[in-house]
């Protein structure tokens, strides 16, 4: 397909862009972007977002092309803090910000290949499975803390706490510090995904990130001296292949930060949205009684509503997607959330249907070389959290389905979701 | 042989993936679509065929 935007004199953004006002940060678009994205996939599947200075890619096929071609669609420089460092604030030497430089999500081959090879064993399905009993204890403890109240905020009192405490267990960090992860993660994503920000706020958030870096650095250094049975120590185990240079402390710090950032908010959203969807679709009671479809329900939740709405890549050479020319050096925003609703890939895509045959084909965990390394832990944690809710609050209700989101074009997180039940 | 683009795990049809219910001798094409990489959890479509 060739679009009008290919015509001479008509830059990609088009003299007549169909979606000049689409802004994933605007509450209405964040709340319910689906009708507009449905139009975009049909009428202008790749379009320019002038206020974010990036191209938005909406179709499944294009998103898969991006994921499978990391040479053209690079991660280097793709995930950066978009709020500049305030004047006078010093970044300590070795601190991975503002680019999270040594983090997996900001690298291409061959650096990425080496990092992934060294880190994957610590995050594999067999390696995270033994955390299950501890995660179950976390879920039960949290629910028991409010079960006699007859109501709770699922986000603040459960999902966020689950995510933070699970990460703390996996990393071997003190449970008392888990609450700080949430704050730091929020700061991380605000600086990355909320470009318009007052300087005072930017200074506060940047100061928090530096504090986070120093905290993780100290923890990594302590594991060098005294290894434990945790993920941080697992990353220090020398590789079997002597030709591969082991991870250094800067790389471990950067990737632990990235892991916490990527695994805290996201899993909390995953749990929250799945609970909300089960109620919205009238499936809660049935699933409480019969969990046999839970894996498919979780995957359909990821497809239907998802967690990460979109991510960035940098185009390394002139290329074309859906007939639209994209020049080298451009930043693109591939919308997994839109791809997962693509009617060319998923029949009746707005319908929540755990029985659809290609339910596992969603791109919620990205794909290709950059498939989310934390996916096994996220799936394990979410499944345990949901089962604990089914077991302990089988008569749950959601009085108000409306969810307000934190403004963020990468991971819009529900602020609050009240649940109720008979005590 | 097929390899996972995400983590490098190699699926060998001779071995299958018994832990996931895929018996030895199962061709990659015959694995159900809801099968996931036993190491990283990537979906089947994130595997690519290795050259002979």
Tell me the fraction of residues in β-strands of chain A, as a range: 5-15%
Spatial shape of chain A: globular
User: Mind summarizing the main beta sheet of chain B?
Assistant: 3 strands, antiparallel
Low-confidence stretches of chain B: none
Which strands sit side by side, in order, in the main sheet of chain B? Answer: 2-1-3
- Strand tally of chain A: 9
Structure description:
The complex is a heterodimer of chains A (423) and B (52). With 423 residues, chain A is an alpha+beta fold. Chain A contains 15 helices and nine strands. In chain A, the strands form three sheets. Chain A has a five-stranded mixed sheet with strand order 1-2-8-5-3. In chain A, strands 4-9 form a two-stranded antiparallel ribbon. In chain A, strand 6 (319-321) and strand 7 (324-326) form a beta hairpin. Residues 1-15 of chain A have low confidence and may be disordered. Chain B has a three-stranded antiparallel sheet with strand order 2-1-3, with no helix packed on it. The A-B interface holds A 68, 116-117, 120, 123-126, 295-296, 357-361, 365, 367-371, 373, 375-376, 379 and B 5-8, 33-34, 36, 38-46.
List the helices and strands and how they pair.
The complex is a heterodimer of chains A (423) and B (52).
Chain A: H1 27-31, H2 34-43, E1 46-49, E2 54-57, H3 60-68, E3 73-74, H4 111-123, H5 125-128, H6 132-146, E4 151-153, H7 154-171, H8 178-193, H9 199-225, H10 231-234, H11 249-280, H12 284-289, H13 294-304, E5 311-315, E6 319-321, E7 324-326, E8 331-334, H14 336-339, H15 375-392, E9 418-420
Chain B: E1 2-4, E2 10-11, E3 47-49
Antiparallel strand pairs in B: 1-2, 1-3
